[in-house]
Amino acid sequence: MLIEIEEGGIYMSMELILSDTLLNELNIRKNQLENIIQVIKRRQKNQPEGKVRVVKKSDYYQYYYIDSKGDNVERYISVKEEKFIRKLIQKKYDCDIRRESEYELKLIDNMLKKYNPYKIDNIYKKCSKGRQKFIDPVVCPDDMYINKWKKDLSGFCLLEC
Length: 161
Prior knowledge:
three-stranded antiparallel sheet, rod-shaped, 20% strand, 5 helices, alpha+beta
């Protein structure tokens, strides 16, 4: 497929290779996200119940445990329980990463399902020959470009004569 744009008498042509690059990059990102989600799912199997609330007091932080049963009762967690605090904070981070990764993965899957780089090219091709005769296409279909190229070269001898 070729796009031909006329600007101020300058005739430009550029091949559309972006579609392949875009699809490739989307598939790479999709694989990355699937791997991230798998890592997070494995981590989430060993995470403790509940949440932690972090409060800054002057120059230090205080940590409060909130039970997941919905009691809304907070219990102070001593910094000596660093492993427990770390697990609760990591749990929240992992949950946020998983949610965003799954959302982005869903968007990419939808894009891959719906994206068709040849849709624009097909608009001209779907027109009847009677209509095509009067259309100056913005996107030049491959066969039209080949014919134009052959016509432009018809006066040249490419071999030594």
